[in-house]
Amino acid sequence: MQSSSPVTALGPLLTGIIAVALAAAFALVVPVTSAFAAATTLYASPSGTGTACTSAQPCSLPAAQTAVRSLNGAMSNDIVVELADGVYRLSAPLRLTAADSGNNGHTVTWQAAAGARPVISGARAVTGWSLADSGKNIWRATVGTGIDTRQLYVNGAAATRARTQVNRADFTATSTGLRFGNSALSYLNNLADQNRVEMESVGSFTDRYVTVQSISGNVITMQQPGWNNNTFGYDTFTQPHRAGPLYLENAYEFLDAPGEWYIKPGTGILYYIPAAGQSMGDISVELPVLQSLVDVGGTYDAPAHNIGFSGITFTGTSWLGPGSGQGYADQQTGSYITGNWNWPADRLTSCQEGCQQFEATRPNWNQMPAAVQVSAANHITFTDSRFVNLGQTAIGIGNDADAHASGVGLGASDITITRSEVARSSAGGILVGGVRADAHHPGDQRMVDRNITISNNRIHDLGLDYRGVVSVLTTYVTNTDVSHNEVYNMPYTGMSIGYGWGANEPGGSNQYANRGLYNYQPRYTTPTTASGNRLVGNYVHDVMQQMTDGGCIYTLSWNPNAVISDNYCLRTNGWFGVYFDEGSKYYTVTGNVLSNTGTWATANYWGGENMGNLTVTGNWSTNGSTNVTNGDRGNVVYGNVTVGNGNWPAGAQAVMASAGPQTGTSPSPTPTPPGDTSALKGVGSGRCLDVSGASQANGAQAQIWDCNGQANQQWTSTGSGELRVYGNKCLDVNGAATADGTAVIIWDCNGQNNQKWRINNDGTITAVGAGKCLDVAAAGTANGTKVQIWTCHGGTNQQWTRA
Fold this sequence. Notes:
Blueprint: H1 6-10, H2 18-23, E1 40-44, H3 61-71, E2 79-83, E3 87-89, E4 94-96, E5 108-112, E6 119-121, E7 123-125, E8 130-133, E9 138-142, E10 153-154, E11 157-158, E12 160-161, E13 163-166, E14 171-173, E15 177-180, E16 198-202, E17 207-216, E18 219-222, H4 226-230, E19 246-249, E20 260-264, E21 269-272, E22 285-288, E23 294-296, E24 304-310, E25 313-315, E26 317-318, E27 329-332, E28 335-337, H5 347-350, H6 356-359, E29 366-367, E30 372-374, E31 377-383, E32 386-388, E33 390-391, E34 395-397, E35 412-418, E36 421-423, E37 430-432, H7 437-440, E38 450-455, E39 458-460, E40 472-474, E41 478-483, E42 486-488, E43 495-497, H8 510-515, E44 531-536, E45 539-541, E46 551-555, E47 558-565, E48 568-570, E49 576-580, E50 585-590, E51 593-595, E52 601-603, E53 615-617, E54 620-621, E55 636-638, E56 641-642, H9 650-658, E57 677-678, E58 680-682, E59 688-691, E60 702-705, E61 715-717, E62 723-725, E63 729-733, E64 744-748, E65 757-759, E66 765-767, E67 772-776, E68 787-790, E69 800-802
Parallel strand pairs: 1-2, 2-5, 3-6, 4-23, 5-24, 6-25, 12-20, 23-30, 24-31, 25-32, 26-33, 30-34, 31-35, 32-36, 34-37, 35-38, 36-39, 37-40, 38-41, 39-42, 40-43, 41-44, 42-45, 43-46, 44-47, 45-48, 46-49, 47-50, 48-51, 49-52, 50-53, 51-54, 53-55, 54-56
Antiparallel strand pairs: 7-22, 8-9, 9-21, 10-11, 10-22, 13-19, 14-15, 15-18, 16-17, 16-19, 17-18, 20-21, 27-28, 28-29, 57-61, 58-69, 59-60, 61-62, 62-63, 63-64, 65-66, 66-67, 67-68
């Protein structure tokens, strides 16, 4: 089988994460040269030494930080720290405080040198592989004792931690764990390192982990308090609203499939089974060792301020929290329960749909700490940068104190993330705001998160390990502008505004009074800090791919002056377009296009009292289903149009064409409305996607050939994600397989996922069923070179343009 790995497509693979950075050379990131003509410039490089920080004698990042602190006290111009190309491997997070800030109206900017793509990494490169088990093709490398991780990246893609999927019906829950009777599972009693084993339960909107204490006599005893916290409330480990996959993970004995890995901290040995087409002699393996990467924040009296980052890739973290006795008692979008509570003795029956003891936890949920953290800070910018291969939430802005390494949460203002990429990470993309009391009713007004801009970014392929996450969530924040981003390939909801289910609004909620929440927190009489938040001009597509009970855009609680407008939502796997969940009030939703969604606008009025005042006007959708009606609960609803057969009016087409990133973010056109017919030209080859021999037979191979305008090179994109040729044949992944190298053929259109394709703004075309890219084999350029699917790596043999 011919390999089309990045080694072939991009030239010799550089060590570590440089391969990932080079793979994105076609994408959003356009590092800029310094715009500060009079700036003081310091120079850093991965091999830098000393304290000179000059172009001739560059220094390390820590030395550059020291140099900034020696210069910024009396700034008369900007300071630029120019990063040369290469990987800056951190031994501790880079923490920037007031002492590292710009002063006197000037800014300290950490930016890529002209033409460079510097990478700040919390990972180490793994080399020195040797064969450990020839029968199972397991390889090993020594990484040092005491090192642990939950993620591993191979050739820039997340590998799978050793696991086995099990049947829920084989297990019976107890107050301390699980019993099993299936004799096929008896081997579990003899697992080594049992207290490192974890069980993962994928539910409806939660993705939970518990750690094992021991396994004996067909009884799995779980570590506490993780087991107790995961087994009461809603969508629990033991009674999920939707029973998704159940996995046992993180044991050497589960290491049995290509692409899986296992680490043993006690011996310092990392094990890996190479995937198809991988050679252990030339693969790049990155082992994350830091739990956060960059922490920007001071105190409310002395915040960090006037700091910028440009043209930098941030990568290589692993949050280890779920591997502790706490497990990961997921609640919603990265918030989770920790600690000891007054669990009902019969919670497995009495508290699977909530109970008063569960409500005691709600005001005390933790937030997942992000890889890049910003709090107690103002005027911080991230531009033309990448946040990839991170083991947690990528960027946390003004989250609660428990989510910040500085110990100071909230207090983020005038923060901007623009023209950047957030991708291929374990949890959510950008989380703005906290969920605890000081977030929604702050004791100090300096805690208020305000004026946050997230624009012109590409955010995709997230939730690899924690699926109940979104691309961008703004909780209790005043004035956010989330505009012209492209979001795709999300396991759960696309974008989300608000938090709290209406329980913290003026007057509170009788539903939550009945549940007992107000025994543990005030019933507030004043508004929260959430207001003036905007989602405008975003292109959100191919979301809700794994979870349930969500949609393209999701809202919670009151949000005066909130605007959701001019967004293009495409394909939600049957789930909602705009989803107003409990307590949602004061949202204006206008001028949006919602194509191939389930109910295009829904409000969860069940248990969601004190909601309404929704203005829903002038939207276009492919179905007319909604329960949001004019005059009900103060709603204003009119002028919404149901569109059939792809006959989008001019206004809708204008929204579709302008949605997504607008400035310097894509070499290909903005999203093409369904119905477009044209050739697809390979960027690397200059030749067109072609059906071999102009055959119309099922199974005919797709290939590249000189562009000739004939019918076997004319591909029509449909609203359901097909690429049709000849009118009735679809581009098809042979056998609905998912392996690298699977042939791409044509077949009678049948609506299955192996005939659905996502045309991305970065020029790639993703096979929806396989999650892999349309790829020219071995980066070939000759007529007749076959087309296949392969793990996405960004090479030019995976880029296509409309011709």
